[in-house]
Design goal:
This protein is mostly beta strands and about 425 residues long. About 10% of the residues lie in helices and about 45% in strands. The protein is built from two helices and 33 strands.
């Protein structure tokens, strides 16, 4: 009887321990799920996850506190024009420092450098020093493009270089006058950038080993970045080079359609936008905008102009900033003159090009959209919160955060990441 009682007691204790362990594991799983549900978007590449300047983040600030926003950290940086790509605990950007171009990973919690990778010697240019392109995080790897055209692939966790390729040498061409500015785009197993020259304006390389898989088009690389758009039900890499807009089949590199769009100095910089099976393009230097209709008949694509607004009276002249499409309207910076000092913030009807309103002389800057608000960065280093719809523009708050810059703020997990030529800042936005 005593032995049986002991056994029953032992079984009972084991059952209790097992139940306790089960509850503990359930609690951990629930906590992990709750944490994952609370965690906001990443911003893993140029212009965010969908490369359209938009985030699905919610519950962000409607205005800045009187004392200013909470600064999570400030980290020393370097000279460059790259924005910041964010995924999980990693915030990546590129800059000149110590006579080198560096790809740098910062800890999103502390701002401390996790690792640094040399991309090449420091990039110098009359239009501003430092690398231009924003890194692209794809899975467990990151891809970065230097100012003179060296593409580098590295492991996200360790910074270990997987491969590097000097594309200017590979394609026997010359770097763009103002520096290579194409932010890498990863589509499946290939990374795509603009190179320029007769050998290929746009090229794709294998993500695992850097092997050239295809090349498309020819001529000036321009300063824009490729994007993946759905046109007529087909995913296409759409690139605006210095001379044309190309719709490219991502797997083969076949050019499905093209539309000539040559600008002075090859200064096509803004990223194309898909609008109702059409593609919106815009350029500064008093060039203007076009909405290109893309039709497919009998397996062949044709292009036509749904509307165009060119020259000095254009309704939208995006100097370097990509406009944002909300519903049936486009919002963006309209720069006056040949890279002149005057920029308006404008709203136009996307499908017609008809002007709706203009916030005159807002100033040069950049824009992203999250939680029903525009987050505008000025060239002077301010962050502006604003509401805008077809009825008008309302500024909700403005704060000075960094020095002069041309970057858009990157919004991830409730925080904003911005930089200038001296530091990187992480600011709380929720």
């Amino acid at each position: 009887m005593i032995l049986i009682s002991l056994r029953r007691c032992t079984v009972a204790r084991f059952t209790v321990a097992r139940c306790t362990l089960a509850r503990f594991v359930s609690t951990l799983l629930a906590l992990a799920l709750w944490t994952s549900l609370l965690r906001g978007d990443d911003w893993p590449q140029f212009l965010g996850a969908k490369r359209n300047g938009m985030s699905s983040e919610k519950s962000l600030l409607d205005a800045f506190p009187d004392s200013g926003p909470t600064i999570r950290w400030r980290a020393p940086g370097g000279v460059g024009m790259s924005a910041i790509a964010v995924q999980g605990e990693y915030a990546l950007t590129t800059w000149n420092a110590e006579n080198q171009q560096l790809l740098v990973a910062l800890d999103t919690l502390t701002g401390n450098a996790k690792w640094k990778v040399e991309m090449g010697k420091a990039f110098k240019n009359a239009m501003g020093d430092g690398p231009r392109a924003t890194p692209c995080i794809a899975g467990q790897n990151v891809f970065a493009y230097s100012g003179e055209g060296i593409l580098v692939a590295a492991e996200l966790q360790s910074g270990k270089v997987l491969w590097r390729k000097n594309l200017i040498e590979t394609f026997s061409t010359q770097p763009s006058e103002y520096g290579m500015s194409s932010s890498p785009l990863v589509v499946n197993d290939r990374v795509i950038v603009h190179v320029g020259g007769d050998g290929g304006a746009v090229v794709a390389l294998a993500t695992d080993d850097g092997k050239v898989l295809w090349k498309a088009g020819a001529g000036h690389a321009g300063y824009s970045s490729p994007t993946l758009l759905n046109i007529q039900g087909t995913p296409q890499v759409v690139s605006i080079t210095g001379t044309a807009v190309l719709g490219i089949e991502p797997g083969s590199g076949q050019v499905l359609w093209n539309y000539p769009f040559e600008t002075d100095y090859g200064c096509n910089t803004a990223t194309p936008i898909a609008i109702d099976n059409a593609v919106f393009i815009s350029a500064g230097e008093n060039h203007g905008s076009v909405l290109i209709d893309i039709k497919k008949e009998n397996g062949k694509y044709t292009t036509s102009e749904r509307w165009k607004s060119l020259d000095s009276k254009s309704v939208m002249r995006n100097e370097w900033q990509t406009s944002i499409l909300l519903g049936d309207h486009l919002y963006g910076f309209d720069n006056v003159g040949a890279a002149g000092p005057v920029s308006h913030f404008s709203c136009i009807e996307a499908k017609t090009g008809k002007p709706v309103w203009q916030k005159s002389r807002f100033g040069k800057g950049n824009l992203v959209y999250a939680d029903g608000k525009f987050w505008l960065t000025t060239i002077e280093g301010e962050l502006v919160i604003a509401k805008a719809d077809p009825k008008g523009f309302q500024e909700l708050g403005r704060v000075s955060l960094v020095g002069k810059n041309r970057q858009a703020v990157s919004i991830a997990d409730g925080f904003g990441y911005l930089r200038d030529d001296n530091e990187v800042i992480c600011v709380q936005l929720h």
